[in-house]
Write a structure and sequence with these properties.
Keywords: Membrane, Transmembrane, Transmembrane helix. The chain is of the alpha+beta class. The chain is built from three helices and nine strands, in the order H-E-E-E-H-E-E-E-E-H-E-E. It has one domain. The longest helix is centred in the first third of the chain and has 53 residues.
Length: 281
Amino acid sequence: MSSQAGFSLLEMLVSTTILLIVFAMVGTAFLHSRKISLCRRLEVDTLQNARIAIDEMTRTFRAIGFHRDKKNGQVALIEAAPFQIIFNADLSDSYDVLPPAIPLTFLYDAGSYVTPLQHYTSGAEMYRWTLDTNEDGLVDRHDVKDNAEERLTPNPDDMVLNRECYGVSDTGMALGVDEQIVTGLLGPYDAEDQRSYVTPMFQYWLRDHTLGLHLLGDGDGNGKLEGDELYFDSITGLSVLKTVERIDITVTAAAPRKDPFDHLDYYRVSLTSSVFLRNMR
């Protein structure tokens, strides 16, 4: 008897099916690996943004009040708000103090400008850290997606952290220097003007003879801000500001793209640092 070499139709179908299953498994594993890689990259980038913000603010906040003109009454802290802080410090050799009566920058939620009361002589500049990127004195939905950096990402709630410095240059010209430190941060409101209830970027611990060390805005005295307490009013009164002993800095950053697995949420991370103020007196 003679035998015929080759595959039958059934054998060919079985072989093809097995190959398709193998290719599907390899393709699925490859796509899953790509998603994992994208997740890790988003996590690293988000963490890096938060770390840059925390490091920069921690470094400069340690100098709040440094080399200010105490003799003529130049204060260390000018305003303490949840997502904005204004203070005097001598951090740059390139700028001197501003002359009096020059309007500088908006107070938080107040719609009014900060203006020097007199000409101070120490050389301490005025600094403003804020999420108020449209310069209206408010941190709200109008500061979301209002500049090019925020519009580059698909995340609708991205905000930019700004550092502003006000002083007089070596040529005698009054200047305001606006630096965008990092993008991808979350603020008190989202793009739909809904409260986000993220932890305030700045929390202030005050010390007085009656309450001891206590947290600004902590109505129930449990040592943390919750619910509506997260939206505490800013303070500008010198009698209160001079009692600030510690500032807790919390940065909440979000990924620019949604999670590649569920396509619903944006990965977010929060970092916290505490700074004890050494130049308040």
